[in-house]
Specification:
Strand content: 5-15%
Strand order of the largest sheet: 2-3-8-5-7-6
Radius of gyration: 35 Å
Helix content: 40-55%
Distance between the termini: 73 Å
Shape: globular
Number of strands: 21
Structural class: alpha+beta
Largest sheet: 6 strands, mixed, barrel
């Protein structure tokens, strides 16, 4: 709240972050000036223009509070006040003294800033190295944050998004909570629940879009008429869907995404009211949605009314996804308890449909829409930990360089002390230099982030749910500013503390002889290098384990040759009807047409693909095991396979046969079981001709006609699970996957366009989503691929920084002991011994770091154990390789200064002595 002048009124609430920053000041100063400082900050914030203006105000306030707060704490601690450093008890109380003090503080800050610029300009190599080191560390952190931002952090483009949730049926066997509902179930849940303001339904698929231009297939979402009102979304042009549009018999209407409007219709401002054709049916365009709208995922380009008819809908036709808005005062957990109680009542009334689920889950909208939520969270947590290690290593390296540089500034520091500069002023000077270097590094980091984020953001599959593109928005810039201002705390405090503790006489003595900063500083630098190596070992070891896991994932035999398979998801229009013979004939015609394409070896069909995030399970038993309660029976994955599926998919039939053409479920049910299941039930015996019973309410007895090889069906981490293949022929399912095997001389990618053309020629109204099977497999290896790539970059940077740190310490030690080396040579020591002695110093430091880092690497292995594939948490191979690499780096880094030490002329050393 502000007055007419734009200034905030007294009593306006101070942001929590600024109140936290104020804690840097001593308590007595906060009591005296806290209100005035807060009022000044709020005034500047109220007068700022736009997000960048607010960022500038926050950055300026953070820097001011940081410097002034630390300086005041030093003043209180050292018992000094005023420019002359006299002892005092507290802050000034007269207005004139207060203004003078503020003015003096500002003058000191300006003087320190100018002096810092001149000092850094006189040391260009040091300045460039520090800025580059900090810039890379800040850039890596900001890149990871900017890539993570649209997937996990950026606010959802819906009104009051925190109240939006997703409902899903819970599978009683696997615990999977993404089950869909029928329209009748949605209506019952809406009428009986009190925890939701409203519930809406939707489902998605594809449609062939035609009109003035060439036809194309677009991803489409059908939603109930209240969907957009529930989401709280308005159209950018025109209007959104309403309950009136959802009525049977109303004119056909469509909503366009902004991307489709721009790409296909050239941002035509007259698009409203124009007619487009979807699967041959004319639809009127009623609106264009905002650019950021992405429900339920980024690839959707059209939204249509669902128009379900309760009088003809089947309760068991469960293809609708449900989204809800929590009522006021309700939490997701309480809503889950209430809606699950409602579901229990419905399951009792409708056991065949509602009884398929054990409960109803209530999940946050972002998590529910992102089908790889857990994988993304784990991957980004790993990467954030990695970049945090890199930033700490970079700051440790800069601290080590700064300590070394103090050796050249001993006389300068001593003279400033002799001229009256107190410890507080010296510490403040070093902190100003540190912040100046950090700001330069932050600017470089943001520039590198602008390039790196746009490149690395493309590595994540575009179908994964995200809000907007990877970009440098204000959240990313704020994060970069925070870590930029945090870095001085990591690399400047040790040098500043060393300087503050240094006695004036000691400094003059060391300065007079050209000495360094003393043994304490040298020990501090060695300790920093040990810490640097330790962190580097942990990071590089983690990288090695993730890379080995990726190699194991890529080398996993999933049970079929994914690199030779093309898939096509087919959804027949409702006009085809539900006659099993008609549905089978339609798919048979499509498969025959594709089979005639040159380069196609074979074609099959299946209800759901392996590794495609669709998992269906059933309980099974032998006739002798039916006395075991259903919940105690073993479970198996299940899918329905048509004729030719096993041949096209490349899944081996180890015994018996696969499904034959023309056989249906109306006859004696037949199944093909996987080898794992056959060995579990009939170890050492032939399973052919045996009977297996599966199902829940009405168990089915089926005859085993074949045994297939094992396949990976639900990810790569758990290995092949028991699988029961049932016949697809004779079912009413209008959604099926065609599996197309590429023959010699062709590849899945080379067949994509011919298959697309053939399907269009056979039936222009049949939408098809065509993907190589390798794309589906890569989604299962994405966690290791993304983590390995990022951690590999972080590991190389950490290794380079460790090498620089070892080199710097050894080189500095050699420069300090140059006369000692010459005297040793003059007294008979040979150059080889000097060389070994210097290299040994670097190896000893590294060995201590390797010991500490090795223990940390074992600990990190246990933390990563849930993400490792074929690699144990204590991976001797990786740890041995990392130790060897760091020892080689230590020897190489120490060898150059060692050669310089061995080349010292004894006569020169004697003259110096």
């Amino acid at each position: 709240m502000s007055d007419s002048s734009g200034s905030p009124r007294r009593g306006t609430r101070v942001p929590v972050l600024y109140s936290g920053l104020m804690l840097l000041f001593p308590a007595d100063l906060r009591r005296e000036y806290g209100d005035e400082m807060a009022h000044l900050f709020l005034s500047r914030l109220a007068e700022s223009q736009g997000p960048l203006g607010r960022i500038r105000v926050w950055a300026r306030a953070s820097i001011d509070v940081f410097f002034h707060g630390l300086a005041e704490r030093w003043r209180v601690r050292l018992g000094r006040r005023g420019a002359g450093g006299r002892v005092g008890a507290g802050p000034p109380h007269r207005e004139g003294e207060r203004d003078a003090r503020r003015s003096g503080f500002g003058d000191e800050l300006r003087q320190d800033l100018i002096y810092s610029i001149r000092t850094l300009a006189r040391s260009p190599i040091y300045t460039v190295v520090v800025v580059l080191t900090l810039g890379v560390g800040i850039a890596l952190n900001t890149v990871v944050f900017s890539v993570m931002n649209p997937f996990l952090l950026r606010p959802l483009p819906y009104a009051d998004a925190d109240a939006l949730v997703h409902l899903g049926g819970v599978d009683p066997i696997q615990g999977w909570d993404g089950g869909r509902f029928s329209f009748l179930q949605l209506e019952d849940l809406r009428e009986r629940s009190r925890s939701f303001e409203d519930l809406a339904g939707y489902y998605y698929g594809t449609r062939n879009l035609s009109g003035d231009q060439a036809a194309e297939q677009v991803v489409t979402t059908w939603g109930t008429g209240n969907l957009f009102q529930l989401l709280g979304v308005q159209a950018a042009m025109g209007r959104v869907l309403t309950p009136e549009d959802d009525r049977i018999g109303e004119p056909e209407v469509a909503l366009l995404s902004r991307g489709l409007w721009v790409r296909r219709y050239g941002s035509d401002p007259q698009i409203l009211g124009k007619t487009i054709r979807l699967n041959g049916v004319p639809h009127d365009v009623i609106g264009v949605l905002p650019a950021e709208f992405n429900f339920p995922f980024n690839a959707v380009q059209l939204w249509l009314p669902m128009r379900a008819d309760p009088t003809v809908e089947a309760r068991g036709d469960m293809g609708t996804l449900v989204v809800g808005r929590l009522a006021e005062g309700w939490t997701a957990e309480r809503a889950r308890e209430e809606i699950s109680a409602v579901h229990e009542e419905l399951a009792t009334a409708y056991p065949e449909a509602d009884g398929q689920y054990s409960a109803v889950s209530v999940t946050s909208m972002r998590e529910a829409l992102n089908f790889v939520w857990d994988m993304l969270q784990r991957a980004f947590l790993i990467m954030l930990a990695g970049v945090a290690f890199v930033l700490v290593i970079a700051c440790v390296n800069v601290a080590s360089l700064t300590l070394a540089r103090l050796g050249t500034r001993t006389r300068e520091i001593a003279l400033r002390q002799a001229l009256g500069a107190g410890r507080r002023r010296l510490v403040k000077q070093f902190l100003v230099e540190a912040v100046l270097l950090a700001v330069l590094g932050g600017v470089l980091g943001i520039a590198l982030t602008h390039v790196g984020a746009s490149l690395l953001g493309t590595l994540i599959p575009p179908d994964i749910y995200r809000v907007g593109e990877v970009s440098l928005d204000r959240r990313v810039l704020f994060f970069s500013a925070v870590i930029t201002l945090a870095t001085p705390l990591l690399f400047a405090l040790i040098p500043a503390w060393t300087t503050a503790r240094k006695a004036l006489t000691d400094g003059l003595k060391e300065g007079s002889t050209g000495g360094g900063v003393g043994r304490r500083a040298i020990r501090a630098r060695k300790a920093l290098v040990v810490a640097e190596v330790s962190l580097g070992v942990i990071l590089v070891a983690g990288t090695g384990m993730m890379v080995r896991s990726l190699n194991n994932a890529l080398a996993t035999d999933v049970g079929f040759p994914a690199d030779r398979i093309l898939t096509a998801q087919i959804s027949l229009p409702e006009s085809v009807g539900e006659d099993p013979l008609v549905v089978d004939a339609h798919f048979r015609g499509l498969m025959d047409g594709i089979s005639s394409i040159p380069g196609v070896a074979s074609v099959g069909s299946v209800s759901n693909l392996p590794l495609n995030h669709e998992v269906f399970s059933i309980r099974y038993a032998t006739p002798d095991g039916l006395d075991v309660p259903l919940e105690d029976r073993p479970s198996a994955h299940t899918s329905r396979a048509g004729p030719g599926y096993f041949e096209a998919m490349g899944i081996q039939i180890l015994a018996g046969r696969s499904f034959a053409e023309g056989r249906s479920e109306e006859g004696a049910p037949e199944v093909v079981v996987s080898r794992t299941l056959a060995e579990r039930l009939w170890a050492g015996e032939s399973p052919l001709g045996r009977t297996i019973v599966y199902g829940r309410d009405e168990p089915v007895s089926a005859t085993v006609i074949g045994v297939s090889g094992d396949i990976y069906y639900d990810g790569l981490t758990e290995g092949p699970q028991p699988h029961i293949f049932r016949s697809l022929t004779g079912t009413t399912s209008r959604r099926r996957f065609l599996v197309i095997a590429a023959g010699p001389g062709s590849t899945p990618h080379s067949l994509m366009e011919p298959v697309r053309r053939e399907l269009f020629n056979l039936d222009p109204d049949v939408p098809a989503g065509i993907r190589p099977m390798m794309d589906i497999l890569r989604e299962s290896t994405g966690l290791w691929a993304i983590s390995s790539l990022f951690l590999g970059v972080f590991g190389m940077v950490a290794l380079a920084l460790a090498a620089l740190g070892i080199y710097g310490v050894v080189a500095f030690s050699v420069s300090q002991r140059r006369r000692e080396m010459g005297l040793r040579l003059a007294l008979g020591s040979n150059k080889g011994k000097i060389l070994r002695r210097v290299v040994g110093e670097g190896v000893r430091m590294t060995s201590v770091g390797l010991l500490i880092g090795g223990i940390g690497a074992i600990g990190s292995g246990f933390l990563l154990s849930s993400l490792l594939l074929g690699v144990g948490p204590v991976d001797g191979f990786t740890l041995s390789a990392v130790i060897a690499i760091f020892l080689a780096v230590a020897v190489g880094s120490a060898f150059i200064p060692a050669r310089r030490a061995a080349a010292v002329e004894p006569a020169e050393a004697l003259r110096m002595e």
